[in-house]
Amino acid sequence: MAVITKTHALNVVRRALGPEHADAVAARLPERIDLDDPAHTNLLYQLGLTPDRLFSALGGEF
Q: Where does the source fall among the domains of life (predicted)?
């Protein structure tokens, strides 16, 4: 089970996509995000927080 905190997730979003995006999604994120829970991963996808997008925004290449 891969669980991260809302604070950790927002720090990643802030670094990758900027503080405005982090502020915009903060209210919709649960305090603990289970990355193995389909409901949580669906929410992240709806908010545009996909692994590919975050990785790319942080300057990563596949």
A: Bacteria
Cα-flanking dihedrals φ and ψ of residue 5, to 5°? Answer: -85, 160
Which tokens in the block code for residue 2?
């891969």
7's tokens? 């604070």
- 32: which residues sit within 8 A by CB, 6+ positions away? 3, 4, 5, 6
Identify which of 42, 44, 53 has the alpha carbon closest to the alpha carbon of residue 25: 44
Residue 20 token pair: 């405005």
What pLDDT does 61 receive? 64
pLDDT in tens, 49-60: 988 888 788 787
